[in-house]
Design brief:
With 333 residues, the protein is an all-alpha fold.
């Protein structure tokens, strides 16, 4: 049940991510996507850092500056690795923060070059694949067949949800735009795996997200000033920045980190492909868009891909229970 709750938590995070497009459309704010992305990380990162600071008790130092305390394993994967030194933990935090900022720039560059459909699907589709490959290399274990099928269905569903734009534009894509979108997927994979490593070192989810996104907020400030921040000072701009920062970033990544502490990074990355589901639902219900047959089929395929992960987790849990029973029987003998 704990793993099912973790999957649901990540799914809710993906739904929060999916509100960004509708929020920008409803706000009517005239700002570049890069500026909006920088404002989102600045507000959301500052909120996460503040929440991490407030959640500490007794005035203890931030977790990244202390030797990690021994804690129960946060996932069913290999035992917790050897404790890192302070420098290595800071390096991972900085690397994760840089990946968070890089994701915004590469994602919008890919969308600008090849359009929303192609850019979004390439970024969202490459992220779980790259996460699974990197996680397999680090853990020295091949991904399961069920995860590969689930990811393939989820990526296909996301492509169909785009309205077929990915398929009709294949011959017109810009190679540099493709590289940018895949770069966004790689950035996502890096900060996901970095967060997972910090959690396995005994850092609390709020501390890991607060430290990483707090640093990302500092890196985003000059980007926002360079791309123009005057729109943020308008009522609509404040509302947009507040929603994107508080809901689509702070709340979303708190839920994301809670699930990441209890699930493999590759599974979490696949579940977050559900982001287009919320975007589609909001488009139909709030923006009064028409859902064509192809995107409707994509929603079904995407849901099937996500549901395929559920038996996998149950099977792993049952398998561990059987192994534990066998080991107990041997000890008794």
């Amino acid at each position: 049940m704990c793993r099912m709750r973790a999957m649901l938590t990540v799914f809710l995070a993906a739904l929060c991510f999916g509100t960004t497009g509708a929020a920008q459309e409803l706000s009517g704010v005239d700002a570049s996507p890069m500026s909006v992305g920088a404002a989102r990380i600045l507000v959301g990162g500052a909120l996460l850092a503040a929440l991490a600071a407030l959640s500490r008790r007794g005035g203890r130092a931030p977790a990244v500056l202390r030797a990690p305390a021994r804690s129960p394993r946060v996932s069913a994967d290999p035992p917790a690795p050897r404790s890192w030194g302070r420098g290595r933990r800071l390096l991972v935090l900085l690397g994760g923060a840089a990946a968070v900022v890089a994701y915004q720039g590469t994602f919008f560059a890919g969308v600008r070059s090849n359009g929303v459909a192609v850019g979004t699907v390439l970024a969202l589709g490459s992220a779980p694949v790259l996460t699974g490959i990197l996680e397999s290399l680090l853990s020295r274990r091949a991904p399961t067949g069920r995860w590969m099928w689930a990811t393939a269905l989820a990526v296909l569903g996301a492509a169909l949800v785009s309205g077929g734009g990915l398929f009709t534009s294949v011959g017109q894509v810009s190679p540099l735009g493709v590289l940018a979108s895949v770069g966004a997927g790689a950035s996502y994979a890096l900060y996901t795996l970095g967060s997972k490593a910090l959690l396995e070192q005994g850092m609390r989810p709020m501390d890991a997200m607060g430290g990483m996104f707090g640093l990302a907020a500092l890196l985003s400030l000059p980007i926002l000033l360079f791309t123009g921040a005057s729109w943020v000072l308008t009522p609509r701009g404040l509302a947009l920045a507040g929603w994107l920062g508080a809901v689509a970033t702070a709340l979303a990544y708190w839920l994301f980190s809670w699930g990441l502490a209890r699930l493999p990074a590759s599974t979490v990355s696949t579940i977050t492909i559900a982001e287009p589901l919320m975007a589609t639902l909001l488009g139909v219900t709030v923006l009064h868009e028409t859902l064509a047959p192809l995107p409707a089929a994509g929603v079904v395929v995407l849901i099937l891909g996500l549901l395929l992960l559920v038996p996998s987790l149950r099977w792993r849990r049952a398998e561990r229970g059987e192994r534990s029973g066998v080991e107990t029987a041997r000890i008794r003998r």
